[in-house]
Each structure stands twice: as structure tokens, then as C-alpha cells.
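#lab-general

N.A. 3:47 PM
ok so I finally got the sequence cleaned up, no stray characters, all 227 residues accounted for. can someone with queue access submit it? mine expired

B.Y. 3:52 PM
send it over

N.A. 3:53 PM
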Amino acid sequence: MDKNEAYYAQEEFVRTDQTNIYTIKSKIMESWKRCSTMGLNPHKDICFNPVENWQLNKLLIENKELIEIAGPFMYRLYEILQGSGFIIMLTNPEGNILKTFGDADNMEDARFVIGGCWQEKNVGTNSIGIVINTKEPVQVSEADHNCQKNHGWTCFAVPIFDNSNNMIGLFSLSGYSSEVHAHTMGLVVVAVEAIEQKIKIRWQNHQLCLMNKAAVLLNTSRRTIPL
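B.Y. 4:20 PM
back already:
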């Protein structure tokens, strides 16, 4: 979609709660509607709602395994993108940031703070907020964001699932729209596939360990039963 058309559609929606431009992606439109229903002001510098220290410690403990698994893949991706202005984030299923990698100046500009919550009710339309609702990968660019402060950014988010198909987190990549390339979303998808594979291997190893322990206990009990 043409960039100017996207801005026009967003402005029209702010004025009238609807738009006649049908090239707006359905996921974006649904997010705009949710944000409008919540009464969010697109002209306001919306807060990202950071948590208290005790809540942050609880979040990090609860998601320790996910952080340990995802961390190395986040770092490898950052090595590829270092200096480009992109910020890599891992969140829990509720959109609280658990870990980040990125250039320091961009991190401060975007306010990607550990523990900050990027649900739509806090920051308006964004990739993390949409994935929380849809559990599907999404790209949000420039005027797709209903908060005008975020119009210069493009963000990608992909859900992370465990072996029971539960969404256990989100992997997100954000950067200035001028730096985005066609392959950028693909990098996020590949990283998430690697994370999910690692989760699967850990689960399989855990199951194997449980089976081995059960076999040892069974053999021990058999040897102790008197004839």
C-alpha cells in the first residue's frame, strides 16, 4: 500500500472511526477498532506501563527457561543487525518485555524497557499487541500504528509456541522504517523456529530423563521384592 494512502486512512479513521480505504490489512483495522473502543488518544504520548521491581523479578523468574533458550538466538540476530538501529525483544504472552538487544540510542528513543508492557491498551496498535490477540505473525509499519509517535517505526512480531501449542512468548524486531528490507521478517521467523526447536529438544530430553528414572525405580523395586 502507498505510504501516503496509509497515513490518509489512519487520519480518516481517527476522525470518523472508519475508513473507505480497503487496502488496510484486516489485522491492522481490527486493532484500530480495539484501540478506539478503549478510548486511546493517537495524539497522546502513550505510556508503556512499566512494572514494579517485585513484579519484574517475578516475571523474570517465571520465564527463566524461555529467556535462557531465546537469549543466544537473539544475540546472534543482533550480531547480524548491529548498527542498523533494530531492536530485538522477547516478551511473555502478556506483552511484558523480558529481554532486549539493540543499539543504546535507539533503545532509549523507543522506550523498550525490561518489564514494560506493550499491550494495545498501553501503546496502541503495535505488532506485539496484535499478536497477543491473534497469535499470528504480523508486521506493523508507520501509519499502521494508531499512536502517531510511532509512525516512523516498523515492527515485526512472531508468537512462540511450546509442544502443547500454547503461546509462551513473543519474539519482536523493531526499527526505523527506512532501514527495513524484504528479508527482515524472515529473520524473525527463522529465529522463532530455532527457539521452538530448542524448546522441543529440551522437552524431549526431560521426558527421556523421567522415563529413565521410572525404569531405575521399577528395576530397584523388583530386586527388593522377596521370592
